[in-house]
Design a protein that fits this description.
There is one protein chain. By secondary structure, the protein is an all-alpha fold. The protein has a domain of about 90 residues. Helices cover about 75% and strands about 0% of the residues. The chain is extended.
């Protein structure tokens, strides 16, 4: 057991240390691009490294046994996809609301309809969180499920700090 935990810690450390290099701009991309807000397609290698780092980080942070990990990861991946799809739908509806308000030519009924669709899509996140929390509790003790939520936030913050552009500081808040 200690050997597995040591392996995951070493894997997580090596992957997390290599991530800053992946965050550097591509030499092929022009620095004065005309469309700085448009991002190129993510490099599949970087995405795989990020996912490997996430797996190592969560497995270590949550102290998952191999049996728990085998049951947890398929459910967690399904959860992330469902939440991602729900948030994408919410963003799409929000962009439709923004477009309607900018154009100003939509009927009252059309605006009300898209507003209700937007509110419903926002609530989908909460429904999914409850459904998947129940699923996680079927395969893990409550303490490890709680650690999953903590690990998600810690990993997110760690990635933001790692990819933060040089010269950016927290004083702008």
């Amino acid at each position: 057991m200690k050997l597995i935990r040591t392996f995951f810690i070493m894997l997580a450390g090596s992957l997390l240390l290599s991530l800053p290099a992946m965050a550097q701009p591509s030499p092929a991309a022009p620095s004065g691009s005309c469309c700085p807000s448009v991002r190129p397609d993510p490099d599949p290698d970087n995405k795989e490294k990020l996912e490997s780092a996430r797996i190592a980080f969560f497995t270590t942070r949550m102290e998952l046994t191999p049996d728990e990990a085998g049951k947890f990861w398929p459910v967690y991946n399904e959860y992330r996809k469902a939440i991602g799809d729900a948030r994408k739908a919410s963003r799409e509806r929000f962009h439709r609301i923004r477009k309607m308000t900018e154009e100003g030519s939509s009927s009252e009924a059309a605006v009300k309809k898209i507003l209700m669709e937007y509110i419903d899509s926002c609530g989908k996140d909460d429904e999914l969180e409850k459904i998947y929390m129940d699923e996680f509790l079927k395969i893990l003790p409550a303490e490890k499920v709680a650690l999953m939520y903590v690990a998600e936030e810690e990993f997110r913050v760690k990635m933001i700090k790692m990819w933060k552009k040089p010269g950016m500081d927290d004083k702008k808040q």
